[in-house]
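We store sequence with structure; for instance:
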Amino acid sequence: MHTNAVKLIGGIALAVLFFANNFVLFNLTYVFTFLAMTLYVLLKKKAGKTKILFSAIYLMIMVFQVVYNSSVMSSEKNSPFNSVLSRVVGTIFVLAPFLVNRIFSKNKKSFLPSVQDITVFTFNEVVGNIHKIKRIMEKGRASLSKDNIDELLKDMPHHDSFRYINKGSLTKAYFDLAYQTMDDEHIYLVISNTGSPASEIISMFTGKQYNHASISFDRTLKTIVSYNGGERIYPPGLNMEILNYFNKKPDASIIVYSLPVPAEKKQKIIDKINEINKQGNAYNLLGLVFKFSFKPNIMFCSQFVYRMLKDAGLHYFEKKDGQVKPVDLIELDYYRKLNYEYEIKFNERQSVIPSATQIIPLLV
């Protein structure tokens, strides 16, 4: 009875997915299935090698699914027949991890939980982690609001984690301004608590308040730049930033740190950003989850800042750039290379800033 009910619910879900004809929904389904299957495998009492094997297989399946979706299902060149056919195949692909689980599990015993297993597991987890779950639920209620989800779904079609879609968004005027800062032998690292839908959801998993990182070549942040969503003005990727865009919630704030650098290394970073701007780039949306870039210039914000530091020989901690979180840039400064400059709390007049006449015009 339980098996039939599960099959019925699964069939209905696949039908809804097919008729929705939304490639973003397909990608979310692929990612959610991967996370669910991997999590359950890791929680099972199986050998470590078995867990790693199954997790790797599920990851490869998910990557193939997303690539297929991005390159075939979402293609505007599809005829009506090909469009329907690609959706049929894409819908069937959802079942791939479950098929692998059934075929390769030892003694034909599935990794998937029974209804009884789910009930026992959930009860035990709730009893053992009631306070933690309560905090997560409270945070999730705000982060996973309808407005945040709607905003993310609207923004996702503008992204592409497989090819360069942003090129030349930084103008000659920007680089002229950046090169004029050579007398200031510092670069400035900025971490932000912006309140954007993406950062709010990321904070659910990182447990950190600050979830965006940028770099500037002047103290007043006229040259602030990073990888971001483009604010629907430019394609997601390498873009100049405006402080107003950071003020998306009542407690939005930024903290600025300086790093002393020789002029030649500062120029090397600006030259590298100029090169990326000319070659093309894109925001590494999938890299937030899978810590992997399909092309060199596909990055997310903290990955970009760390890469620039490392290319110039200025990095002060060792970590794979795809695994660097914004707060790592501050928290992993074990050798105290950074100097605190100031904080801006956008909606509090008592913010400690270097000079009101320098900063306030940037907020207008």
User: Anything to note?
Assistant: Residues 172-363 form a domain with the endopeptidase fold (from Nostoc punctiforme) fold (CATH 3.90.1720). The chain has 15 helices and eight strands.
